[in-house]
Write a structure and sequence with these properties.
Blueprint (H helix, E strand, L loop, with lengths): L11 H14 L1 H25 L6 H9 L7 E4 L7 E4 L7 E5 H6 L2 H16 L2 H23 L1 H9 L1 H27 L1 H12 L12 H8 L6 H10 L15 H4 L4
Parallel strand pairs: 1-3
Antiparallel strand pairs: 2-3
């Protein structure tokens, strides 16, 4: 009788089991990443519960709607002495924009609407998951590197933390320029005027970083670009004379959560 060679068993189950075992060894990493994304996802609800934001005044709400942002996705925080505006959440569907009563006092309704459109662009354009995802992807790559190469992988991951920080700053600054462009497309000169007025009131820092070399270095690592660079880009934006609002992310219907 002729004996046949043994049939090799599939390698996929072995690879899968190895990958699952590796993932189990790094369960703390997955828990940390999940907690980070979950925290960002739940941020609007957390702010709503702790701060009890109010609805926009009627005139501001109408201006916000004209700017292409659902007014019911914007909450007002009772902070008279502070100018605050930020986006909370991962996407436009579930996220919200919060502004302070101090901002409402500083700007007219058109200016507030322009700032709101800038913040909403962070949600509509996917800036938030991108900025959260970069350090998470780095952490996973570091874990893989450490598993494959041991101590050398750990050292290499630590060294790569420096370019990662630089990349995070560059991406954050790009997202601010991108949100500026979206706000300017939707509100015209109202957005630039709002930035200029907030700067005149000392709410956006200096137009150009000043001070010694260390201070300028720290300013270069800020997630927000210098105001002068932002205004310069807005001035370079081509003006076609239309105040069009092209699609810059999920539609207003999706932003309301009606899909």
């Amino acid at each position: 009788m002729v004996s046949l060679p043994p049939v090799p068993s599939p390698a996929f189950p072995s690879v899968l089991s190895t990958a699952l075992a590796w993932a189990g060894d790094w369960w703390e990493l997955w828990a940390l990443i999940a907690a980070g994304f979950l925290g960002v996802r739940l941020a609007p609800a957390l702010v709503a519960r702790t701060e009890r934001p109010a609805a926009l005044p009627d005139d501001v709400a109408r201006a916000v709607e004209r700017a292409g942002v659902p007014a019911d996705r914007v909450g007002v925080l009772r902070r008279d002495g502070r100018v605050v505006a930020y986006a909370a959440g991962l996407t436009a569907v579930h996220g919200r924009v919060f502004v302070s009563t101090g901002l409402l006092r500083e700007l007219d309704p058109a200016g507030v609407a322009a700032v709101v459109r800038h913040e909403h662009a962070h949600l509509a354009r996917g800036h938030v998951p991108l900025r959260v995802g970069i350090p998470c992807a780095y952490a996973v790559a570091w874990a893989v590197d450490a598993t494959l190469f041991g101590r050398a992988g750990l050292v290499a991951g630590a060294v790569l933390a420096v370019p990662l920080a630089y990349l995070s700053v560059r991406v954050a600054r790009w997202s601010e320029y991108d949100a500026d462009a979206v706000a300017a497309r939707g509100t015209g000169e109202d957005y630039r005027d709002a930035l200029a007025r907030l700067a005149a009131g000392g709410h956006l820092g200096r137009t150009v970083p000043t001070g010694g070399r260390l201070r300028r270095l720290l300013a270069s690592l800020s997630m927000h670009p210098p105001l002068g660079a932002r205004l310069g880009r807005l001035d370079e934006r081509p003006d076609d004379g239309t105040n069009a609002r092209p699609s810059d992310g999920p539609s207003t219907r999706a932003a309301r959560g009606d899909d």
